[in-house]
Amino acid sequence: AVFFSARTILRNRDWQSGLTLYGHDIRYSENFDLENNYAVELFRNGQADAAEYHFRKSIELNKDFLVAHSNLGALLDKRGDLNGAIAELKFASSNSSMYYPAYENLAGIFSRLRTMGPKQKYEAASFMEDALKKFPDNTKIAFLLAVIYYEENKIDSAKLLLERVLKNDPGNRLAQQFYEGILSGLKLKFVD
Q: How far apart are CA 92 and CA 147, in angstroms?
């Protein structure tokens, strides 16, 4: 019992934060999940270079670990590496029909790219329509698709999606404002 008490006291020192816990454990174990968790904590603490290294290490240890691909994609997006971000997020979303953050992050990128031309807008809408079949209650993807529908002058489709968003997330002020603007006949411009 004394051994376990001493071990617990020592382990509590490691558990000051996720960063210290994973930083301690990663020195003693090579594990894809641990690498990913440590990278998340590094990223949250503004250490993007170190986070990228550990996301890539996680993927190296398990190339099919979709969470690490999605997280790396989000990091690359924040850095402005859209090609790298899209590649990672496409890998994560195409290999899983259940990991919604990859779909949300990719929908966000496609939403920003929609202003580049009709091909990008079509790709964005197609991706989001497919994503909503898998995640029908996802308010982020539904809202972004509603914006595209509005821009394509598919006002009724945009309103239906916004109604779905507001049903699932009644406190969504941006969706509420957009919906009220459509009902009022205002010319709206969405900038993300």
A: 25
Distance, C-alpha 6 to centroid of its chain = 41
Residue indicated by tokens 């002058």 = 153
131-170 pLDDT tens trace:
999 999 999 999 999 999 998 999 999 999 999 999 999 9
Cα distance between residue 105 and residue 116, in whole Å? 18
- Residue 124 amino acid letter: A
- Read off the pTM: 0.79
